Amino acid sequence: MYSTIAGTGSYLPEKILTNADLEKLVDTNDEWIRSRTGIERRHIASEGETTTDLAEHAARRAMQAAGVAPGDIDLICVGTTTPDLVFPNVGSLLQDRLGIHGCPAFSMEAACTSFMYALGVADKFVRLGDAKCALVVGAETLTRIVDWKDRGTCVLFGDGAGAVILKPSAEPGILCTRLHSDGRYKDLLLYPDGVSKGFALVREGKAGVQMKGNEVYKVAVNTLGGLVTETLQACGIGKEQLDWLVPHQANIRIIEAIAKRLDMPMERVIVTIAEQGNTSAASVPLALDTAVRDGRIRRGQLLLLEAFGGGFTWGSALVRY
Ligand code: COA
Predict the structure, then answer these.
(1) Which portions of the chain are predicted below pLDDT 50?
(2) How far apart are CA 82 and CA 194, in angstroms?
(3) Out of 77, 112, 133, 176, which one is annotated catalytic?
């Protein structure tokens, strides 16, 4: 038994913040941001718009694409680092919005890799026969925890959501998923406050995403390079068999390095970073849905999905779409 992607959906908030807008907030410029990251603009959740709001739009679009009704869904698995509340979790909040009652619903928190973790876990449920119609979402309002005075990080992130519906299938589907973490790197990329820390930094206005960009960059390229090789080997698939790379959209230079590792021309890589920035857990399902809807990704093609994030965490999925 395998799981297969029956439909995809995504959502971006209406409000757009361009590099020119950022020039008014911090000492930066469009040329620097474009050349170092590939980002031109990003979408920002408006006041009062929450992660669950974004997730609901993406989920409804994925359900429509898959031709499933809320009553069909028997598992909700959301990847997010920016939940609306401490609890109930975003999975349960989304479940309520969709009018679904009783099935398991939960969120997984693994920074930018959260969607890959959610997909990996939901895939196991479906393979084991414990779910017949799983809603898997990556949704994020990461701009809410960004330090808008730190030019090294605030230019990178955006908000959004993406979703897939997984169903059982005798044919793959998801050939394999790979999930990893190494907490040794916890100090290179973090948000240094939270419930158990007492929100002292938040109260003092000193909280915000912190990153040692250069070091993150180097570890990301090495780790993702190893991950794509490991994923292909685990499935006995050669890199020449891949149709599309659907990477986490953190930095165009990281994406290009991984494409090179796979000998894939950039025409076969889904790149949304210019328009969306780094939407953390939402970035891979957003890229997937974008390319499914514009007709680039077609049924039967072989896709490699991968992401990397704070923790560090990293994960992948090899998918026959
Ligand atoms: N605008 C203008 N200048 C900026 C800037 C900005 N937004 N942000 C940093 N700078 C400056 C720095 O202050 C530094 O100036 P200095 O040389 O006078 O000290 C200079 O640009 C170079 O900074 P550096 O951090 O070395 O740049 P970089 O080439 O490493 O690029 C990143 C910075 C963040 C784009 C890059 O390191 C990166 O993408 N890292 C990975 C980040 C990532 O993917 N994170 C998410 C993982 S999920």
Answers:
(1) none
(2) 11
(3) 112
Ligand 1 lined by 155 (C-beta under 6 Å): yes
DSSP classification of residue 196? T
Mutate to test the pocket of ligand 1, among 29, 40, 214, 221 (most ligand atoms within 8 A of CB): 214
The CA–CA distances, whole Å, from 114 to 149, 197, 209, 213, 268 equal: 26, 22, 17, 20, 24
pLDDT of the residue at 72:
98
Interior CA angle at 171 toward 166 and 175, to 5°?
70
Q: Which residues contact 224 (CB under 8 A, 6 or more apart)?
A: 247, 254, 257, 258, 306, 308, 314
**Cα 36 to ligand 1 centroid, rounded to whole Å:** 7
Q: What are the φ/ψ torsions at residue 290 (nearest 5 degrees)?
A: -55, -45
Task: Note the pLDDT tens digit of each residue in 5-22.
Answer: 999 999 999 999 999 999
Per-residue DSSP letter, 46 = P
Q: Is 248 a catalytic residue?
A: yes
Chain-centroid distance of CA 296 in Å reads 19
Among candidate residues 43, 57, 180, 248, the one labeled active-site is: 248
State whether the beta carbon of 317 lies less than 6 angstroms from ligand 1: no
- Rg over alpha carbons for the chain, rounded to the nearest Å, is 18
Q: What are phi and psi of 177, to 5 degrees?
A: -125, 150
294 Cα–ligand 1 center, Å? 32
Task: Indicate the helix (H) or strand (E) that contains 320.
Answer: strand 313-320
